[in-house]
Amino acid sequence: MSLSAAANSMSDKDFQNIGPAPLPPSAGKSNASTAAFNQTQPISKMMNGLDINHRKSIPVGNQRVGSHSLSTTRRKTGWVSYKDDGLLSFLWQKRFLVLNDSYLALYKNDKSQDDPSLLISLTSIISVSRTQLKQNCFELIRSSERNSFTNSSNNSLSSSSSSSDSSKKAIYISTKTEHELHNWLDVIFAKCPLLGGVSSPTNFTHKVHVGFDPETGSFVGMPTNWEKLLKHSRITGEDWNNDSAAVIQVLQFYQEYNGINPNNNNAAAKANAGIKGSIPSKPSQINSQSPTSKLSKPSLDHAPQNYQKNVLQNNNIQHHEKFQPRRHAPMAPKATNTTDAQKTPMQQNIQNRIDPQYSANHNVPPPRAPGRQTPFKQPLASQNYQPSSQPQPQAYAQPNTYKPYHNNTNPYSKPQVSPNRDIITPRAPQISTAKLQNKYTQQRSPISPLGEKPKVNPNDLSAKAATIAMRQDLNPMRAAPTKPTAAPSEPKKDVAVTKQRKPSKPTMSNAEIMSKLKNVTFNTDPSPYFKMIEKAGQGASGSVYLAERVYLPPNINNRLSRYQNGESPNVSIGDKVAIKQMILSKQPRKELIVNEILVMKDSRHKNIVNFLEAYLKTEDDLWVVMEYMEGGSLTDIIENCQANTTSHSPLMEPQIAYIVRETCQGLKFLHDKHIIHRDIKSDNVLMDTQARVKITDFGFCAKLTDKRSKRATMVGTPYWMAPEVVKQREYDEKVDVWSLGIMTIEMLEGEPPYLNEDPLKALYLIATNGTPKLKYPETLSLDIKRFLSVCLCVDVRYRASTEELLHHNFFSMACQPEELVSLLEWKK
Ligand SMILES: Nc1ncnc2c1ncn2[C@@H]1O[C@H](COP(=O)(O)OP(=O)(O)OP(=O)(O)O)[C@@H](O)[C@H]1O
Questions:
Q1: CATH superfamily label, 510-628
Q2: Model's pTM, two decimal places?
Q3: Which among 190, 304, 512, 588 could bridge 52 via Cys, Cβ 3.0 to 4.6 Å?
Q4: Bias regions of kind Low complexity — which residues (predicted)?
Q5: Please, what is the angle between helix 734-749 and helix 782-791, to 10°?
Q6: Using an 8 Å Cβ cutoff, are 729 and 414 in contact?
Q7: Per CATH, is 76-144+167-195 categorized as 1.20.140.10?
Q8: CA of residue 697 to ligand 1 center, whole Å
Q9: Ligand 1 pocket test: which of 546, 624, 697, 720 has the largest number of ligand atoms within 8 Å of its C-beta?
Q10: Of 84, 422, 679, 683, which one is the catalytic site residue?
Q11: How far is the centre of ligand 1, averaged over its atoms, from the C-alpha of 723 (Å)?
C-alpha cells in the first residue's frame, strides 16, 4: 500500500478529533524544539527546560576567556549574528556567543580558548529588548560605567561602539530562529542582576512584577485596568500559571486592538463594557443608548452552567460517549470514487495532510508521508510528533504548580508596538497549592457583573435574538448603531447591536477620502431611483435596506460600465437591490468604507457580493448599492437550522461542503489578487434564494504587494482569528483559510470554538490551544476532519492555500444548489 493510500485508509475511528496541526518539514528529530515552538507549546513550558533558575547546574569547569578567567560554572552558547551601533554598524558578523554566570562573551569561533571579541559583564547590562533591526533580533544596552570589559586585541567593534549617551553602548544580536532568540532572552534576563529589578534604568520601559495571588483571588502587580480586564475575562490563575506569556501577549494584543492605555481606568472600563454588555434591554432603546450605557447587568447564575458546559466540552472522552452517531444527511454526496492514481498531485498532496499529532496523542499510527517530496509532505512516521498543548480537562482538580517565568515578557513580543509600553513579568505566588485550588474555584465564581455573559432577559429578547446578540457581541469594542437616515419600515431583526472598528490613526486625509469617493460614486440624490422596501440588516457603519429600482438615471449603464471596468452591470427597472446607507461624519474610519467600495468594485466574481453603484447624496450621505442577497447571512441560516434540527450539526456535511467550496472560490479569487479579506466568518457570507453563496464586508481587506508581502495589523473578529494574528506575528492570505476552518466549525457545531468565552479568554485559548478541538468528532466524516486539519493548522507553512483547498476530497461530497434551498425556507 502506498503511503498516501495508507493515510487515506484510516478509518473514522482513528480520527476522533482533528487534533493539532501537522509539523513543519523541518520539525524532525533534529529540530524538534523549534517545531514545538512553532506549534502550540506555551513559552513558559519551553522555558522550564532551560532550568535557568538553578544556579548549581552542569559544571563545565573553569574557562579561560582571553585574559579574563571566567571562573564560573554554567554557560549557554550558540552562534549568532552580531553588530554594534558604532562605526562598523552596517556589518553583521557571525559570532559564537557564550553566556555564563558573570559574562557575556562573543568569540570569532566556538573554541573559547581565543580571546573574545567582546566581553560584557552581566552587571553592566541595563536593558535588553527585541528590535526590528533584523529578524529574531534583540538589542542589548550596557553601561560602560558598570564594569564592561572589552578585549584589547579585538576591540575594533566594541571600542567603536558608542550610543548617543556615551555611558551607554548598544549591541545587536540576531539568532537563527525565534526559538533561539527566546532562549537567549530568557537566560540573559535570568542572569543579569539589573534586569530582574523593579524598573529599568533606560526610562523606556516600566517593569512590573505580576503574579496571581490566590489568597485574594486576584492578579497582583498588574496595571489596574489590565487586572480588571483579566478578572472579567475568566482568565484564571491557572491559565496564568500554565502560560503567563500567552496571557500577557493577549493583553497586549487586546490593549492595542482597542487602543487602551493600561493605566487609564476609563478606557479600560469602556473596553470592558464593550466586551460584555451589548444587549440592549429593548430594541427601541438601541439608538438612544451610548456604548457604555448599553451595559446590561449580567446574570450571576450563568457561570456554573458555563463551567459545567466547559467541563463537558473539554473532557472529550466523557463527552463523546454521550452522543449518538450523527444522522445521515438526506442528500447523497456526488459519486466520489476517485482513486489515488486518478488524483492530481495537488489532490494527493492535500488529502494526505492529516493530523499526525492526533495520532501521537491518541496512540494511533500517525499518517505517513507520500513518496513525493512536496511542500506539504507529511512528516515521516519515524519523526517525533510534538503533542500540542491541549486544553486541560478541568483546572480545579489538578495541583497547581507554579511555573516560574523569570522573564521580561516584552522582548518576546514582536516589536510592532510602542517601545515604551509596560513590561510585565510574572511573580511567584506566595500561597500553597491547596489554597490555590480553593481560590481558583472562587475566581471562577460569578462574582463580577462585568465578568459575566450579558444577561438575556427573555421578556425583552427572544432566545434567537439573544443568540444573535451574543454572536454580534464579538468585537471587543462596540458602538451604538448609527441612526438610519431613512426608515421606510421596521427593522427585520430586533437586535441591532453592532461592532465598531478599531479607532486608529486614519491613513488618508478627509480631502483624499472625499476625492476617492467622488471618483467611484454618482454625485446625485438617488432617492427617486429606488423604492425602499424594508430594512435588511444593520452594520457598524450603517443600515442595509432592501430596495427596488423604480427609475433608471440617464445613461446609467454607460456610466456604470465606466465605473465597473467595462463589465456589463445588467441594471434594469424592477431589480431588487441592497442599499447600504452611511453617514460619513459618523464613521470613525472613512477610509475603510473607501476600501470596501474599491475592493467590491474591482472584485466581480460569482462568490463575491456584486457592487452595483454608489451615490454621494450629499457630502455626508453615502449610499452603496449592491446585489440583494435575500437569503441573508450564513449566521442566520445556521441559527435557524439549529432551532430546527435535533442533530449536533445544524447543517449536513454535503451542504457544508457546498457552502465552504463556494466561499473558498471567492477567497481564492481575492487571494489571486493578493487581497486578504481578514474577517471571514458566517456573518460575512450571504446567500440568495438560488443558494448562491457570496462573501461580503470588505472593509478590513488588505492588499499584499511585492514590497509588503505580509501584514501585521490586528484585524478581524477574535473567535475567527488565526493564532498568528493573535500572537501579533506577520501574516498573509492564510489567515482567511484559518477563518474558513472556523466557519466550517460554525456550520458543524453552531458556533465557533470558545464563543462561550470572553473575547480576551478566547484570544488566550487561540494562542495557547492551537488547533481547536471538535465537539463531536466521532460523528464526522474523515474527509471533513482532514479538511479542517489543513485549514486549522497552526503552522502556516502547513496550512493549505485556497487553491489547494479547492482540490480537497471534502468538496467532492458537496450537494447541488437545489439541496440548499430548504435552508432558506424559514425566510419565506
Ligand atoms: N447585499 C446584501 N443583501 C442582503 N442583505 C445584506 C446585504 N448586505 C448586508 N446585508 C444584511 O445587512 C447586515 C449588515 O451588513 P453590513 O455589511 O453593513 O454588516 P457589518 O459587516 O456588520 O457592518 P460593517 O460592514 O458596517 O462593519 C448583514 O448582516 C446582512 O444581514
A1: Phosphorylase Kinase; domain 1 (3.30.200.20)
A2: 0.54
A3: 190
A4: 381-400
A5: 140
A6: yes
A7: no
A8: 7
A9: 697
A10: 679
A11: 26
